[in-house]
Amino acid sequence: LFLRQKELLEGKSFQRAIESIIQNEKVNSAYAVMTTRDEILSTFRNLEEPAIKERLANIREISDRLISELGGVSPRIDLGDEPVIVVTESITPTELMEMDKEKLLGIVTRKGSATSHAAILAKNMDIPCVTGIGIPQSEEEWEDSIAIIDGYTGTIYLEPDNEVRKEYEIRRKADLVERESLLKLKDKGDITKDGREVGIYANIGSLDDLNSALYYGAKGIGLLRSEFQYLGRENYPGEEELFQAYKKTAETMGDRLVFIRTADLGADKQASYLEIPVETNPLM
To answer: Are 95 and 77 in contact (CB under 8 A)?
Structure first.
C-alpha cells in the first residue's frame, strides 16, 4: 500500500498538476496540493470501480500528508488523554498506524468497507472496526457518549443500557477465553475429524511477517510474494539481494516448507523501471 502511494507521489502527472497551479495562480505549494487533490476527487468521486476508489483514497492520503509537511493543517488524529472510540468520516492506514494503540478502543467510519486497507489493518491489530455507518453530520452529537461497537456484526450501541452492557461484557470475556484456547492449539497437528492430516501455511508479503508465521504455528510459508522486493525502488533488485531474502526466509522457517512466487508484477504492482506496456485488462 505505501509503495503504491510512493509511486503515485513520484508520478509526473501529479507533480505537473501541482507545479502548474503554483506557476499560473502564484499560490503557495500547500494550497496547490490542496487544489489538485480537490479537483481529482471531484472529477472521479462518482466512479465505483474498486481500483479507482483505492487510487482516490491514496491521493487523498498523500495529499493530506503533503499539506501537513508544507505547513498546512495536520491531518493526524489526536486521541487525547483517555481511551476512546474514534468516530470519523474515513480513516487511512497511515493515520491508524500513527495513533496511540493504548488509547484506541475502536473505530467507526461513515465511509469505507470491511475490506478496506484500514479495516484489514485494524483487524490485524485486534481493534474493533465498523464501517459504512450513518454518522450524524454534527460530531458533537456523539461527543463524550458511551458506546459499544460489535465488530463481528457491524452494530453500534450508543448509550447502551445496563442489560446490553452486561451482555457485551459476557461476550467480551467469552471472546478472550476463545482466543486463549485457540492459541493453545497452534502447535498441535493440523488433522481433520476423519483423521486426514492437512497443512496450514502462512502467506507473507515481506520478511517482517516471518515472526508472526512462526508465532501462530504455521506449517510453513504457502506463498512468499517476492514481487514486493521489486517495488519502491529505482531499479531491479540484484541477484545477491534476492538470494539473501530467500535465504533468510528458508533459515527462519527451518525444516518447514517455503513456496516462493518469483514475481507477479503488473496491474496494481507497477514500477517505472519495469516499462510494462499499458493494457486494457492487465490482470488477464
So the answer is: yes
